[in-house]
């Protein structure tokens, strides 16, 4: 049957050229808008990669040729090279560094084979049209000028339809349209003046100080083979402390490429998540758990690129995809924070109108989640940094983190500017002096012409909205806080008590909060008595 579409590409026998050829050939196939499922297209890409890798490794001198042909009933991909020896299907030993490529071709394609040619050999694989579309199949006619090779530096590798132009709030699979985010995607980077075809190659090479092994990894086509070599010959004693910085530097170099940089910026404010099923909870997230270090690096590099491209707009975008509902808060930084209660992800927010800075600590997956355990915590320098016993702020923060760690998912909002329930540090110190003279915390504020509670929770509502939290279980003893957040549109499904042991120094303060401010603080006297007894014993 005559070919409906045919695309031919000459390939120089180097790993970097093979990766680029795979990318361009699949871009051309996708531009034909064939009636093939995404899973099939992903399999085609893997098969093309294996055939090209074999040609680079064993194809002899001179360039190879990659061809894709659509007949109307199947897609045939083939690679021509200069070597006469035909590949044979076999099962490699468990510790073999290569030999699995043909097994992959056999598993993913409907048919495959290899034949001698006048100049060497032809290796091919065929992918059939799905049974449901064999009769009456139609697809968009392609003008002749679209048969020309795709220039990836001049246009996106995958033509974007109107439906594809919509960016989801979360990108949690670096495949298909989002493959360019993967460290496996073709992108030349450098390590110690040596070129590598992907970030994965360079990352694996960085595990060893042996230059010969690095050279061997650089010459490997398949990133999985590079990974095998990197794991086998890793010899850096400082690797655990260095690996994040290594990846950050490589990813920054990767996205200096104008085409890839444009694709990265095209993800907008989507949360980038290295989703996986193989249990990697350091670089990604598996089954809802993980630090997502890779995703955080990508988002940080994206934010850096956005600042450079649009310095006046960069601070207005946040990891949730946009500024907050009022346009007055934006996320400016992200980092992993290891604590005694586990590793949290810190999101640094800046109030664009007032200039204040606030912090959100998240654990687990909170976006689009319901009944998330949340602590809206007010800054308290004296209670947290200095360990003052006049209040319960420090122990409450520590207990909240422990409770969130126990359930595995939650948010701590640390609100700056709330010192002394919103009156400020110096005013709080003056109020302390009045309390030492016999005033309670409410009357001390009143005597200075200040409100008992001057806190504003709009920032908290905006950050929760930005993080995509649907509803919260609020860790608080303060019903007024629940009412304030509810009035701001936060769905509080439950208020969870946050009780800590009082001290003889904080008892009067806590009684005032209970008796005059409506906080739920039962059994204060009994708790202090128990504390005194424990100290005496």
Automatic annotation (TrEMBL):
Cofactor: Zn(2+)
Keyword Lipid metabolism carried by entry: no
UniProt keyword Metal-binding, yes or no: yes
Active-site residues per Swiss-Prot or TrEMBL entry: 453 (proton acceptor), 455 (nucleophile)
Single GO term (MF): GTP cyclohydrolase II activity
Residue ranges occupied by any GTP cyclohydrolase II domain in the UniProt entry: 333-497
UniProt remark on cofactor binding: Binds 1 zinc ion per subunit.
UniProt-listed InterPro entries: GTP_cyclohydro_II (IPR032677), HATPase_C_sf (IPR036890), HATPase_dom (IPR003594), NADAR (IPR012816), RibA (IPR000926), RibA-like_sf (IPR036144), YbiA-like_sf (IPR037238)
Entry's Gene Ontology cellular component terms: cytosol
Domain NADAR: 180-304
Highest taxon, organism lineage: Bacteria
UniProt keyword annotations, A-Z: GTP-binding, Hydrolase, Metal-binding, Nucleotide-binding, Riboflavin biosynthesis, Zinc
Domain Histidine kinase/HSP90-like ATPase: 21-120
NCBIfam families found in the cross-reference section: PRK00393.1 (NF001591), ribA (TIGR00505), ribofla_fusion (TIGR02464)
Function: Catalyzes the conversion of GTP to 2,5-diamino-6-ribosylamino-4(3H)-pyrimidinone 5'-phosphate (DARP), formate and pyrophosphate.
Protein name as it appears in the record: GTP cyclohydrolase-2
Organism: Streptomyces kasugaensis
């Amino acid at each position: 049957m005559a070919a409906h579409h045919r695309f031919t590409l000459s390939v120089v026998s180097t790993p970097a050229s093979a990766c680029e050829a795979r990318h361009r050939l699949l871009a051309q196939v996708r531009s034909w808008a064939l009636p093939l499922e995404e899973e099939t297209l992903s399999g085609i890409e893997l098969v093309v990669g294996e055939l090209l890798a074999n040609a680079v490794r064993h194809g002899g001198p001179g360039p190879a040729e990659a061809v894709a042909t659509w007949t109307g009933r199947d897609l045939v991909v083939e690679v021509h090279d200069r070597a006469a020896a035909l590949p044979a299907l076999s099962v490699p030993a468990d510790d073999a560094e290569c030999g699995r490529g043909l097994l992959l071709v056999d598993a993913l394609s409907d048919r495959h084979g290899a034949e001698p040619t006048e100049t060497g050999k032809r290796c091919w694989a065929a992918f059939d049209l799905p049974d449901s579309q064999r009769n009456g199949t139609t697809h968009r006619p392609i003008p002749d000028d679209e048969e020309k090779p795709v220039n990836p530096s001049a246009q996106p590798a995958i033509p974007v339809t109107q439906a594809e132009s919509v960016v989801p709030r979360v990108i949690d699979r670096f495949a298909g349209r989002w493959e360019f985010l993967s460290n496996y995607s073709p992108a030349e980077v450098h390590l110690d003046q040596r070129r590598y075809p992907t970030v994965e190659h360079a990352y694996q090479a960085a595990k060893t100080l042996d230059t010969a092994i690095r050279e061997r990894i650089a010459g490997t086509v398949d990133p999985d083979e590079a990974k095998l070599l990197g794991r086998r010959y890793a010899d850096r004693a400082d690797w655990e402390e260095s690996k994040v910085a290594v990846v950050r530097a490589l990813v920054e170099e990767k996205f200096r490429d104008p085409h890839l940089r444009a694709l990265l910026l095209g993800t907008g404010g989507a949360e980038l998540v290295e989703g996986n099923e193989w249990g990697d909870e350091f670089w990604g997230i598996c089954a809802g758990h993980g630090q997502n270090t890779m995703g955080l690096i990508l988002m940080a590099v994206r934010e850096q690129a956005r600042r450079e491209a649009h310095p006046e707009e960069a601070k207005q975008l946040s990891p949730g995809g946009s500024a907050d509902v009022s346009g007055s808060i934006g996320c400016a930084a992200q980092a992993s924070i290891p604590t005694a209660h586990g590793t949290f992800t810190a999101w640094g927010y800046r109030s664009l109108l007032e200039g204040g800075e606030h912090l959100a600590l998240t654990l687990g997956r909170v976006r689009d989640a319901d009944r998330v355990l949340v602590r809206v915590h007010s800054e308290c320098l004296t209670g947290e940094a200095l360990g003052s016993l006049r209040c319960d702020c420090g122990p409450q923060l520590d207990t909240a983190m422990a409770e969130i760690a126990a359930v595995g998912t939650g948010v701590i909002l640390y609100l700056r500017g709330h010192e002394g329930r919103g009156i400020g540090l110096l005013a709080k110190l003056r109020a302390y002096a009045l309390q030492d003279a016999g005033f309670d915390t409410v009357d001390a504020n009143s005597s200075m012409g200040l409100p008992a509670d001057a806190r504003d929770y709009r920032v908290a509502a905006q950050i929760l909205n930005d993080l995509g939290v649907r509803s919260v279980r609020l860790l608080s003893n303060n019903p007024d806080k629940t009412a304030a957040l509810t009035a701001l549109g936060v769905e509080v499904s439950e208020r969870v008590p946050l009780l800590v042991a009082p001290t003889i120094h904080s008892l009067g303060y806590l009684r005032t909060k209970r008796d005059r401010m409506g906080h739920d603080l039962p059994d204060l006297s009994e708790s202090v008595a128990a504390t005194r007894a424990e100290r005496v014993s």
